[in-house]
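Thread: Modeling a multi-component assembly for a lab meeting

Hi all, long-time lurker, first post. My supervisor asked me to bring a structural picture of a complex we are working on to next week's group meeting, and I have zero experience with this. I have the sequence lines for every component (629 residues in total). Could someone generate the structure of the whole assembly? Inputs are pasted exactly as I received them:
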Amino acid sequence: MKKLSLILLFPFLLFAQSESYQFGGYAKYLYSNADNPAFGRVDDHIIHSRLNSKFFFSEEITATAELRNRVFFGGSVEKTPNFLSTIQSDHDFGNADIVWWNTHSSVAHSELDRFYVDATYEKFQFTLGRQRVAWGTALAWNPTDLFNPLSILDFDYEERPGVDAIRGQYFMSEVSKVEIALKPGKTKSRSVIAGKILLNQWNYDFHILGGAHGENPFFGAEWAGDIAGAGFRGEAAIRRIGDETKILFPSLNATWSTSAVLSADYTFANNTYLHTEILFSDQGVTRNAAAFLPASLSLGLLSPARWSLFQELSFDVHPLVRLSGFIIYNLNDASSALVPSVSWSALENFDVTLFGLIFSGDALTEYGGYGQTVFIRAKYSF
Amino acid sequence: MRRSIIMCFLVSVTTPAFSQDAKEILQKAIDLMYGKKTYSIVTMTITKPTWSRTVSMKAWSIEPDYSIVYVTEPARDKGSVTLKRKNEVWNWLPSVQKTIKIPPSMMLASWMGSDFTNDDLVRQSSVIEDYSHKLLGEETIEGYDCYKVELIPNPDAGVVWGKIITWISKKGFMQLKEEFYDEDGILVRTMLGSKPKNFDGHLLPSYSEMIPHNKPGNKTSFETKELDFDVNITPEFFSIQNMGRVR
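Re: Modeling a multi-component assembly
Sure thing. I ran the full set together rather than chain by chain. Output:
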C-alpha cells in the first residue's frame, strides 16, 4: 500500500499547485450480513479506498491512473477456499495488483484498474492502456458491451472493471464518430476487435457495431432517444458461437447467439424515477437456468434466462434521503433478485446507504439458492 | 438528477435585467446574455434550516442553445460533464468513461430541494411572450436606480405565477429583484441580485438568491466567481469529443 500510494502521491506533490494534475477518490466501508445457504449466516467487512489521478502533460496528452485498495475480513474470507482468487481481476497481460496479505481471516489487495494514456489530435483521439470501452445505451444490461460486461448485482463496483485495450476514435461531427477498439489476448480466442459508428438523427443517437471475438464475428446496433420526455433505448447483438463453447457444451446446437434489450425510463418533476428494461436471449433457457449458467457465461450472455425483466423505482423521501428499489425477474422460472436501498447524504461529502439483496426462487432457478444479504455502506468522497 | 439543476442554474445565473417601454426593458435584460460566448465559474448553495449543500461548476456557453457544464464540487460528482445542444443533452460519467443520452424528463427534475422550479427553466422565452408588461415606476435597489415592472400572465398562458414584479437597473439593465406571486396575489418567493461586478465590461450581479416565503430558513443562492465574455468558442466546441476533455 505504502509503495503504491507513494508512487501516486509523488506526482501529486509535484503538481499539486498547478492545473496539470487532478487527484480525488473516496474511502468507504461496507458491512454485510448474509444468510447464505452454503455458509449459513456470515458477517463480512470491506474497507475500500480509491485513489484517482490524472496528469495533463499538454492540452492533447493526458495520463490516468486509478488505484483500488480493499481489505476484506469476516466469514466469507474464512469459509471460501482460495478467497483471493474470487476478488482478483483476470487480465491477459498482468494484473498490476499487489496482495498485501492473504491470511485465513483477512485479505488486503490493491489493483490499478485504470491505467491509460489518452492523446488527441484534432478530430482523432487515441487511448492506450487499461480503460473502459463502455458500449451500449441501456442502463441495466448491455448486450453490445463486448469489452466490459458485468453483472448489475455487483453494485459495490461503481467504476466497473477496465480492459487492456487500444482504442481510436474519429469525430466526424459534434455528435457523430467512428471508433475502433482492440483488446489483444494471450490466445486468439481471448482477443476482441470491434468497431462502431455513432450517428445522430431526429434527436436520436444510433450506433452500428461489428467485430470479432476470437474468430467469431459479432454484429450489433443500439439507439438512445426519447418518447414524450421518457428515455427510450435499445440494443441488439448477434454473435457466432465459438467452437470452444460448443465442445464444452455439446447441447448447444445453434450457430449464432442473439440478445436484445429494450429500455425506458421517466423522471417525474418530484424526482420520482421509473425505469424498466427487458432482456431477451435466444440461447437462454426457460428452465433449469442454474444448470445452464456455465454455458451462458461461455456464450457471453448477461443472463442464462430466455426473458428477464428489470424494474426500478426510486424517489426522495427528503431532499437528502432517497429510497430506491429494483428487481430482476426471470420471466421463465419466476425467480428474482430484489435490491431495495435507502441512501442518505449525511454530510456534504459523506453518504450512508443501506442495501438489501434478496434472492428468491426454487432449486435450479436462476436466482434460487443465494439467500439474503443486508449491506450498510459509509462513503467519504474527496 | 443533478443535470437538471445544472441546466436550471445556467439559465438562472444569466437571468437578466428589464423597460423604457416595459417590454423593451425586459427584452434588454434578457439580451444581456443572449448569443454571448461565455465561460463562467459558479457555485450554487442550497440552504435549509438544518443543513446545506453546495455544487460548483465551470460552464462554457452560447446562450441559449449550447452549453458544457463541468462539475467541480461536490467531490462525489467531480468531473461529470453535461453537454447541451439545442434540445439534446448528454452526460459524461468519468468514473465509467461512458456517455449517456439524457431524456428531457430527467433534465427537468430538481436537485436536493433547490428553491427553483421547472418553470424557471423555460421562463426566459416565456416572460416576453406569456405576460403583459407594465411600468409601475422607479425605485432604488442595492444603490441602483431601477425600473419597477409588473408582469401579468396572459389569460391562456400556461404559467405558474399569478404576477411577477421585477426591478431592473437603469444602468446595465440588471435584474436586481424579482417577486413571484401566486394566483391569490400572495408573495411566494423573492429573487435578489446583488454585488454587481464588472465582468469583462458587462455589469452583472455576482450574487443572487431565491428566497421562498413559506419556508423560513430556506434559500438557494448563486455566486458567479468568474464570467468571461467573448470566449473563443463556436457551436462546434459543444461536442461529445470535448465533453470528455474539458476540465
